Amino acid sequence: MASTDDAATNREFARKNAANFPVLSDPNGTTAQAYGVNMLGGFARRWTFYIDADGKILYIDKTVKPLQAGAQMSAHLARLGVPARATSQ
Fold it and tell me: In principle, which of 24, 34, 36, 78 could form an S-S bond with 2, CB 3.0–4.6 Å?
C-alpha cells in the first residue's frame, strides 16, 4: 500500500487496522506522480496496481471502493491466476 500521508500517520493506520503488509509513505508525492495518480491537494487516486514478481504491471483497478476493496482485490487476483493462500489467525 502507498499513501501520501507521513510515516507516523501510516504507522497509526497500520496499527489501528492490524495491517500485516508494508505501507509506503509518500508525503512528497514522488511515487504518486510516477504512477500517475496524484491529484490536487496532495492526495492520490485510490487505484490498485497489480504488479508481478518481475515488476510488470498486470492490471490497474481504477474503480476501487474502499469498503469493498478486500473483496475486489481477491476477485482481481483470482482473475489474474494468483493462487489463494491460507491465512492464520
Answer: 24
Give the range of the structural domain holding residue 25, as residue numbers without chain letter: 1-45
pLDDT per residue as tens digits for the range 15-70: 898 887 888 999 999 999 999 999 988 889 999 999 988 999 999 999 988 888 88
Asked if residue 12 lies in contact with residue 23, where contact means CB atoms within 8 angstroms, the answer is: no
Residue 14 DSSP one-character state: H
- Per-position b or e across 43-76, b if 16+ CB within 10 A of its CB: ebeeebebeeeeeeeeeebeeeeeeeeeebeeeb
What pTM was computed for the model? 0.76
Same domain, 8 and 31: yes
In terms of DSSP bridges, do strands 24-25 and 57-61 run parallel, antiparallel, or are they unpaired?
A: unpaired
Amino acid residing at 50: Y
